[in-house]
Design a protein that fits this description.
CATH topology: fumarase
Shape: globular
Helix content: 10-25%
Strand content: 25-35%
Distance between the termini: 28 Å
Strand order of the largest sheet: 2-3-4-5-7
CATH class: Alpha Beta
Number of strands: 7
Number of domains: 1
Order of helices and strands: EHEHEHEHEHEE
């Protein structure tokens, strides 16, 4: 198992908003700390299967992928008075076989944990996207950054339903960038940005 490289994590924090645009994405480098504000969507394995099936059969998606970010997560049920329960990242490689087609169709960001396949890394470079890592052990903290939550598709999947979240100051680290920088393999390009 790879160990995260923390060498560049102590840089200043970059504030970005969704929808993501290429101009902002190409400035990000592996190791950058980011606070993300805006709409993101949760989707795990089964939701990815359905999203890709919809694309392949030319059916309408539950949300436009253009400039959007998918968070590989399935929150726990919300306690009374809370917007969401704990929400932490799912291991990203489980979505690797679906990711290139989503990127080709406009997805610009992914949030998860762990390494990505070379095919996904190549697709991130090709389609000018970004892969963010969220820290897995702080799911209660991440939940406090969620200001709105609504199931928008595949509610039969329970915790794996697609949720539209509005987040403010959602703490992330760039794990994969448009230049091939990879936080998990210690490939940190343009270190002195």
């Amino acid at each position: 198992m790879a160990v995260l490289c923390y060498r560049n994590i102590m840089k200043k924090t970059i504030m970005i908003s969704t929808p993501l645009n290429v101009k902002d994405i190409i400035k990000l480098r592996a190791g950058d700390r980011v606070l993300l504000t805006g709409t993101i969507y949760t989707a795990r394995d089964m939701a990815h299967v359905r999203l890709v099936e919809a694309i392949m059969t030319k059916r309408r998606l539950p949300f436009s992928l253009a400039g959007q970010v998918i968070f590989y997560a399935g929150p726990t049920p919300a306690k009374q008075g809370s917007i969401t329960g704990s929400i932490g990242p799912t291991t990203s490689y489980r979505m690797d076989k679906y990711t290139p087609i989503l990127l080709r169709n406009g997805l610009k960001g992914m949030i998860g944990k762990g390494q990505r396949s070379q095919t996904v890394k190549d697709s991130i470079k090709k389609y000018k996207a970004v892969y963010f890592a969220a820290v897995g052990g702080v799911s209660a903290l991440l939940a406090r950054k969620v200001k709105q939550s609504e199931i928008i598709a595949y509610d039969d999947l329970g915790a794996e339903a697609v949720r539209k979240l509005y987040v403010e100051g959602f703490p992330l680290i760039v794990a994969g960038d448009t230049e091939g920088g990879d936080l998990y393999t210690n490939t940190m390009l343009n270190k002195d940005k």
